[in-house]
Specification:
This protein is of the alpha+beta class. The chain contains 6 helices and 4 strands; from the N terminus they run ααβααββααβ.
């Protein structure tokens, strides 16, 4: 589990240093074939809210989205989901909340679809829809990123050389 905290810290550092969230064809291709099969998958979601509305947005997130993440954690599809607030003042990157989700190496397949989970957790689908709509109306911007650990002990460490099966 020690690689999780290092990976999360590295991802936070990369996000803070990133000048913009723009994917070019070169960036999209750069990591092809580099995912380590024995490492969890890390995804990060960023949310920017209107000034002074952070607590209201967080309350909506906790009511209308967090229970879905808790369901995924309880059922083994997600290992953890941790929310962070931006603790500094800077022009970039412009985000108020960062959520780091860790998917285990052998994530369990959920027994229900996303829609079925929402219906189970929120029998009043009109209220759920209104709550999520309000949360998204308060979201000025949102983006997702994923990160993967680089094996520095590999024959060719880096991001361009693909990981190939060992020859027998």
């Amino acid at each position: 589990m020690k690689f999780l905290s290092r990976a999360a810290l590295a991802l936070v550092g990369a996000a803070v240093l990133a000048p913009a969230v723009i994917s070019t064809p070169a960036q999209a291709q750069a990591m092809s074939g580099r995912q380590l099969e024995d490492r969890p998958r890390i995804s990060v979601s960023y949310y920017k809210t209107p000034p002074g509305k952070q607590d209201e947005w967080l309350a909506l997130y906790l009511k209308w989205h967090r229970p879905i993440m808790d369901y995924q954690i309880k059922n083994g599809a997600t290992e953890s989901s941790t929310i962070y607030a931006n603790s500094g003042h800077a022009l970039a990157p412009a985000w108020d909340f960062m959520i780091i989700n860790i998917t285990p190496v052998k994530a369990k397949k959920l027994d229900k679809t996303r829609g079925e989970i929402i219906q189970l957790l929120y029998p009043d689908l009109d209220a759920y829809t209104a709550g999520e709509k309000k949360r998204w109306e308060m979201t000025e911007s949102h983006w997702d990123q994923s990160a993967m650990e680089i094996d520095l002990t590999a024959e060719h460490p880096g991001i361009y050389y693909p990981i190939l099966p060992k020859k027998k």
